[in-house]
Amino acid sequence: MTKLLESNVNSASEADIIIIGFPDESKSDAVRKGTKKAPEFVRRAYNDKQYFGEVGKKVPILAMSGSMKKNIYDLGNSRRSNIKRLVSHTYCSGKIPIIIGGDHSLTSIVLRSIKNSSGNKIGLLYFDAHPDFLSSISDFHGSVLFDSKDCIDFKRSMLIGIRAAEPEEMEMINKYHLDYVTPLEIIESGLSTISKRMISKCRSGSQIYLSIDLDCLDSGIAPGVSVPETAGLMPLDLIFLVKKACSNLPIVGLDLVEFCPDYDFNHNTANIAARILKEAMASIPIPNKKKNRNDTFRSDRY
């Protein structure tokens, strides 16, 4: 299995950021299959496109802003049954879990794990073409928000990139007074205005989780997703908003999900995912001395 070249420490106990792959799509009903291959392909794209090859060595490409001078550990891949345990241990140790999926249902398990560990609801920034707020069906990648409703602080949450919603999902959005932004709204208001609205909405939350379904991007630019939709975000727009969130909000974890390598073209989607990963990591501030949230962390728990 490929591991990120950016992984620069030898154990999870030394890390500020822990990368975990969950190659699982068992809760997806999409016609397109293959998101279980995503962690491997994203890592390969990262190692290929986020480095220059010079005279037999790899030279890292710098992020556009922020710093990669932090301890990163690529834990490798794990099974769906391990998500709760790994995320809980990572969160409780004061480290940032970055998850590469897999289908979007993984986010429900992550949110519940963090909520159970902290005792508090979580603000959610959810980049997606779809609200994933179906209540008539549960425990699949289209019911993430409904399945996680007891874990989410909806007053400190926002959906961004929404453009393919079912009537039932809009009813749920209105019921829970969940703020959302469509790509058309981003064009009308401008990225700067939307980013300020996003930060204002989520800033007072004690913890914010960032979830990125790659189908929030326009399918003409990023075709390798399980449920593609046209009229989506451009890659730089998404990166800008992700960096603003990571640098200005109390991010406790993030994920990249729903990448389908078999439907990608010229590795476009994989390369975009790799760049999102780079820019997000660079923008997450790491305190010089991060205290454990409790005393449960031990390196052998990984």
How are the SSEs ordered, and which strands pair?
Elements: E1 17-22, H1 38-49, E2 51-54, E3 57-60, E4 72-77, H2 83-92, E5 96-101, H3 106-118, E6 123-127, H4 144-147, E7 158-160, H5 167-175, E8 179-181, H6 183-189, H7 191-202, E9 208-213, H8 235-248, E10 251-257, H9 268-283
Parallel strand pairs: 1-4, 1-5, 5-10, 6-7, 6-9, 7-8, 9-10
Antiparallel strand pairs: 2-3
Here the CATH topology equals Arginase, Chain A
* Count of discrete structural domains: 1
CATH architecture: 3-Layer(aba) Sandwich
The CATH C-level name is Alpha Beta
Q: Mind summarizing the main beta sheet?
A: 8 strands, parallel
Poorly predicted parts: none
**What would you call the shape?**
globular
Tell me the distance between the termini.
Answer: 17 Å
Order of helices and strands: EHEEEHEHEHEHEHHEHEH
How does this structure look, described?
The protein is 32% helix and 17% strand. It has helices at 38-49, 83-92, 106-118, 144-147, 167-175, 183-189, 191-202, 235-248, 268-283, and strands at residues 17-22, 51-54, 57-60, 72-77, 96-101, 123-127, 158-160, 179-181, 208-213, 251-257. Strands 4-1-5-10-9-6-7-8 form an eight-stranded parallel sheet, sandwiched between helices. A two-stranded antiparallel sheet has the order 2-3. α1 crosses α9, α2 packs across α3 (106-118) and α7 packs parallel to α8 (235-248). The longest helix has 16 residues, at 268-283.
